[in-house]
Protein: DNA-binding transcriptional regulator, XRE family
Amino acid sequence: MAVSVDLIDALKRCLRAQDMTYRDLAAQIRLSEAAVKRMFSRRAMSLQRLEQICDALDVGLAELSAEASRGRKAMAQLSEAQEQALVGEPALLLALFLTLNRWRQADALAHFGFTPAQWTALLVKLDRLGIIELMPGNRGRALTARNFRWRADGPMERYFRHTLLTDYFADPFDGEQDALLLLSGALSIEGVRHVRQRLEEVAREFDALLARDATLPAEERIGVSLVLAQKPWLLQLFQPYRRPRQQ
Structure:
């Protein structure tokens, strides 16, 4: 049985949303990259192959069918109101984090203190906010891109600066999975641009690794947060020694 063109186009959108390349998919379904490219370029694959790809993407056929009929582009950024709703309800923010990282309901209930009714209510609220689409079996399909970014100086960024940043740095970075590099120096404008490009590359690689590991069981994954930042800055303790700039 042949698969419709709409379903194949929906598969492409799912691949992009998870930042998964044809090479990544080929490795998961044990085909060559060329064979995968050929399938998608010709828009020709069997139902059995479709199911195999859906398993690799952790996407159900009903979910894929809904995506095919909708054709909605994934959001690269949330609205101010959506971010404010998440900031105002930590449990809702946690539910989004788990959904984006493809946790199933059983794993969420096993690791966190939600009842089935509470978990369902959180997913329903995320659905009404337009951040996820609630699918059968309490599966949440994220309507955001895998690598979406928080708004610059938006509710989430302000919340992180004012509330979460202290918590992030409260404990020492001395564990096996920890890393903290405190670097400071004087660079040219070109040097600063180069460092920024490298930080953006690290962010893209982090997104790609998230997509690669998304299908692993919850107990085989560790929650990791990166803070990547740079700005022209002089330590406050140096300020008393600085001469005023001449006008």
In short: The first helix runs from residue 5 to 17. The CA atoms of residues 106 and 116 lie 9 Å apart. The radius of gyration is 22 Å. The chain has a mean pLDDT of 86.
